[in-house]
Design goal:
This protein is mostly helical and 378 residues long. It folds into 3 domains: 2-33 and 157-374, no CATH class; 35-93, no CATH class; 105-145. Helix content is 67%, strand content 4%. It is flat, with a radius of gyration of 24 Å.
């Protein structure tokens, strides 16, 4: 069995496309923090100088309006004529802007400031509507937000890059699809499957060996992705990790530090990698075609992103939008906003309901692989 697992793992990692893609992704993910380091060296002299400049703007009295005035003042200056502080305003604070006096949160498809949430709750209580979903959703949001400090600009070092949900998602997506979409279908396309699955013993051993090899490969992809993203912090610093999460994600309702969110995200990412790997392997076995498996896998990843653009209030579409493997692969995204699912009239936070459903799907797909492989004939 061990030799079979080694053989299947070798088949995956020895593919030329895997080798080439791995090199390209590694170079790209190393280039990003290196470019940032060089840019900081050129424009600020060092990362320490950048931190000193940023410290001046860690001031709740410095608002978006103040930033707009400063940006207007330097709008027509050439990049080479900007001072270090002006370059900071134009290239960092313009993106990671100071928080406006009233932050608006999306709750039950409506936008509320914290004061408006409190006011709406009192209004619903006065009307006796305390058993409605809207009241429960607002009350849950109010309970979470009341525990938070007022978000303001803080220098967060490299945490935006370390927790890049897009890089996490796309990197794992590419490597998993390229590595696993052929794991079963390749044998069918080469007419090897009838021989490999010709006996009861082989129908039991080969699928298990492939699944284990696929999961080992997935674990390698996971570790490599996490390490390469951590290079941002290793090269440019981990400052800001102990600050409240709403300094990094200004609309986040979660009462935790950045590091706590990151560690939870790593667990969710690992779960997502495992589930997505099993789904790809299941598709490879069922379709018996590598290209169809690849296309369906990309579609599974992409549909939730398309639903974000639609932004429908339909509960079924909302469920598909939030409860999917894409959100696990882009796990930091789960903590950026207040997102709930209407679960039989009760608002449940998306990360809480996503995990058990994902585990059930993973177990279900594994059983399908096992059952389908046993039904194969010569």
């Amino acid at each position: 069995m061990l030799d079979l697992i080694k053989f299947e793992l070798y088949k995956i990692i020895s593919k030329p496309i895997i080798k080439v893609t791995t090199i390209i992704l590694i170079l790209y993910l190393i280039l990003l923090p290196t470019t940032t380091y060089i840019s900081n060296k050129i424009h600020y002299g060092s990362n320490n100088n950048l931190k000193k400049i940023a410290l001046k703007y860690e001031n709740p009295n410095y608002t978006e309006k103040d930033l707009s005035i400063d940006l207007e003042r330097i709008e027509y200056k050439e990049s080479t004529d900007l001072t270090k502080e002006e370059y900071f305003l134009n290239n960092i604070l313009r993106i990671d802007y100071p928080v406006q006096s009233n932050i608006y949160y999306s709750i039950s498809n409506e936008r509320y400031s914290y004061d408006e949430i409190v006011s709406k709750i009192k209004s619903l209580e006065s009307a006796g509507d305390t058993n409605t979903y809207k009241y429960k959703d607002l009350k849950k949001a109010e309970n979470m937000l009341s525990k938070l400090d007022t978000p303001s600009y803080k220098y967060m070092g490299s945490w935006n890059s370390i927790c890049s949900n897009l890089l996490m998602g796309v990197t794992t997506l590419i490597m998993l699809i390229l590595g696993l979409s052929t794991i079963f279908s390749e044998d069918f396309e080469k007419d090897c499957a009838p021989v490999l699955l010709s006996t009861k013993l082989s129908r039991s051993k080969f699928p298990k060996a492939k699944i284990i090899a696929g999961l080992i490969y997935s674990l390698i992809v996971y570790i490599a992705t996490v390490f390469l993203l951590l290079l941002n912090g290793i090269i440019n610093g981990f400052e800001g990790g102990t600050l409240a999460l709403n300094h990094l994600y200004k609309y986040s309702p979660y009462d935790m530090t950045v590091i706590e969110m990151y560690l939870i995200s790593l667990v969710l990412l690992l779960l997502g990698v495992i589930i997505f790997s099993i789904v790809i392997m299941m598709l490879s076995l069922i379709t018996k075609n590598s290209m169809i498996t690849l296309a369906l896998s990309v579609l599974i990843y992409s549909i939730p992103k398309l639903l974000i653009l639609i932004n429908s209030s339909n509960e079924i579409l909302r469920f598909i939008r939030y409860i999917n493997v894409t959100n696990l692969l882009e796990s930091p995204n789960l903590f950026k906003f207040y997102d709930t699912i209407n679960f039989f009239g009760e608002p449940i936070l998306v990360p809480i309901i996503l995990v058990p459903i994902a585990i059930i799907i993973g177990i279900g797909c594994t059983l399908i692989i096992n059952w389908t492989s046993k039904k194969q004939h010569i």
